[in-house]
UniProtKB/TrEMBL annotation:
Pfam families, per the entry: HTH_24, ROK
GO molecular function: kinase activity
Gene source species: Agromyces rhizosphaerae
Sequence similarity: Belongs to the ROK (NagC/XylR) family.
InterPro entries in UniProt: ATPase_NBD, ROK, WH-like_DNA-bd_sf, WH_DNA-bd_sf
Keywords, alphabetical: Kinase, Transferase
UniProt-recorded name of the protein: Sugar kinase
Gene3D superfamilies, sorted: 3.30.420.40, Winged helix-like DNA-binding domain superfamily/Winged helix DNA-binding domain
Highest taxon, organism lineage: Bacteria
Claim: rRNA-binding is one of the keywords in the record: no
Keyword Transferase belongs to the record: yes
Length: 401
């Protein structure tokens, strides 16, 4: 996605809809304050949304003096979106309202390596949609671990899933009959942060995920950076050692090969910290119990992550770093290695950059995928024809009595 001012405006329009959906009617002044936008920009955005039939002016709000403020509200429920998180062994699905809040969710087994993985995925999506209420669906957002050529096209290359050139977007559109937006799962989380989270207050920030993999979503000037082939943010494949363990990408010594969940478990088994059949829960329990070997494994993972992120901060100069993912449940053990390694390697004027670690639920990935649908109705550049179709469904829902 190219970075220019129009894409920031696109997200802001979606944010207005989300705010009105979550909090009910509001004045222009309140929207400007809550969304950290100028009154002039709010006025223009509201004018456009009214012209589209998506919001309406309501009664005047009471005033203690001066001219009463006109309240704004959604013209209709504005439809819902389906978000899908795809990983190697399961699929998480959510249905969200225009405010981004989860209405319902499901988690089901899935084998990404199966020869019939596309038809299996279609079946799970159909089952989830069929189990819901009869509501207007704006589209599907799909988050995958790997590179996507463009969100509107949805051709996926993923080492974690074992997929190469999979035309997922077209396959799902033909089978489900809805607009489909496909994106790297961490980029999807960055979109959700921009719409609903800490990113509302920052135009430039970095979302980092730790867990089964390691990735980053880079937001610059209010837009997710995708670069030439949609693969920006693959920080898990930054080489950190010359002769380190083999990574899923086929190279040796990648950051992910050292600090992913599987890598930490392998280290713990090899060191005798946990039994050979045990997993990440056992390693976390050992660290919580004060086992020095377990603590050392997490501390070293934090050190490698901190040192790597310091270089990324110097490269893109974000105002904020947000850490997410399954691995954050053990952040108290990562932090003793992360903080000194990260801060000491930053230039002095950058050492105060905030690092926010957010609580984690598995459905957060799918919620981020659903945010792709809600963020694209006004973004013809990034989502192409799919963005146009989502907008038509959104406007059509608002026009329905």
């Amino acid at each position: 996605m190219a970075i220019h001012s129009s894409t920031r405006t696109d997200v802001n329009r979606s944010a207005i809809l989300a705010r009105l959906g979550a909090g009910g009617p509001a004045s222009r002044a309140e929207l400007a304050r809550v969304l950290s936008l100028s009154p002039a920009l709010i006025t223009q955005l509201v004018k456009d949304l009214i012209a589209d039939g998506l919001i309406v002016e309501l009664e005047q709000a009471p005033s203690s003096g001066g001219r009463p403020a006109r309240m704004l509200g959604l013209a209709a429920s504005a439809g819902r979106a389906i978000g899908i998180k795809v990983v190697a062994d399961h699929v998480a699905l959510v249905e969200v309202g225009i405010d981004g809040q989860v209405v319902r969710s499901s988690n089901t087994p899935f084998d990404a390596t199966s020869s019939t993985f596309v038809s299996e995925l279609v079946e799970r999506i159909r089952d989830f949609i069929g189990a819901g209420a009869d509501v207007n669906l704006l589209g599907l957002g799909v988050g995958v671990p790997g590179s996507v050529d463009s969100p509107g096209s949805g051709v996926v290359d993923s080492a974690q899933l074992g997929w190469s050139g999979v035309e997922l977007g077209d396959a799902l559109r033909r089978a489900i009959g809805l607009p489909v937006i496909v994106e790297n799962n961490v980029n999807a989380l960055a979109v959700a942060e921009r719409l609903y989270g800490l990113g509302r207050s920052h135009d430039d920030f970095l979302v980092v995920t730790i867990g089964t993999g390691v990735g980053a979503g880079i937001v610059v000037d209010g837009s997710v950076l995708r670069a030439a082939s949609g693969g920006a943010g693959e920080i898990g494949h930054i080489p950190v050692t010359d002769d380190g363990p083999r990574c899923t990408c086929g190279n040796d010594g990648c950051l992910e090969a050292h600090i992913s969940e599987a890598a930490l478990v392998t280290q713990a088994r090899d060191a005798g910290v946990i039994p050979q059949a045990a997993g990440i829960d056992a390693l976390l329990a050992a660290a919580d119990a004060g086992d020095q070997g377990a603590l050392d494994i997490f501390r070293e993972a934090g050190r490698l992550l901190g040192r790597t992120l310091a270089g990324i901060v110097h490269t893109i100069d974000p105002a904020l770093v947000v850490v997410l993912g399954e691995g954050t449940s053990a952040w108290r053990h990562w932090s003793p290695g992360f903080e000194p390694a990260f801060r000491s390697r930053l230039l002095r004027h950058r050492r105060s950059i905030p690092v926010e670690v957010e609580g984690w639920q598995d459905q957060s990935w799918a919620q981020g995928a659903a945010a792709l649908v809600l963020a694209t109705p006004f973004d013809a550049a990034g989502a192409g024809d799919q963005g146009r179709l989502i907008r038509l469904r959104l406007v059509g829902q608002a026009a329905t009595p």
